[in-house]
Structure formats: C-alpha cells, structure tokens
Amino acid sequence: MENQATDRAFRIGQKKNVVVHKFICKGTVEEKIDELIRGKAGLATELLKGAETVLTEMDDAALLRLVALDIDKAGL
To answer: Quick check: pTM over 0.85?
Structure first.
C-alpha cells in the first residue's frame, strides 16, 4: 500500500520532482510494520528473482508448488 501511495504522488505529466518521506520512531508500531513490510518485500524479491518463467505462463502444478505452504518452515 505504501508503494501505491508513493506512485499516486507522481502522476503522468508531473513536471516537478516528488519526494516521499517516511517517518518512523524507534520502539513504535510503525517500526514493527516497517520491518514486516521490508521482510515481505525481501521475500517477494527472493521468490521471483532469477525466475525465467512468468507466473502467468506457469502450468497449474508449477504454480501450486510455488505457493504451497511448507509446514516444516512455517513452524506450525
């Protein structure tokens, strides 16, 4: 959602530079949310980096393997 909000700040035809500031105080909920967002972004990057197949071109079995929950890693 943060990326979406940042993208909305810069519109087609915009002539001026757009600067987005994000204020986070240590020990707050915002800091925890920021850590969570960074972790998820990193996970998404790791999942998709080097992927030669576009998700929309994957067959059903390959897509299911990609999104399947690994119970051992989930810690359940």
So the answer is: no
CA separation for the pair 66, 63 (Å, rounded): 5
Give residue for tokens 């030669």: 52
Residue with tokens 């999942």, as numbered in its chain:
47
> What is the per-residue burial (b if ≥16 Cβ within 10 Å, else e) of 18-32?
eeeeeeeeeeeeeee
Three-state SS for 19-71 is CCCCCCCCCCHHHHHHHHHHHHHHHHHHHHCCCCCCHHHCCHHHHHHHHCCCH
Backbone φ/ψ region at 17: left (φ over 0), alpha (ψ -120 to 50), beta: beta
pLDDT band of residue 52 (cuts 50, 70, 90) is low
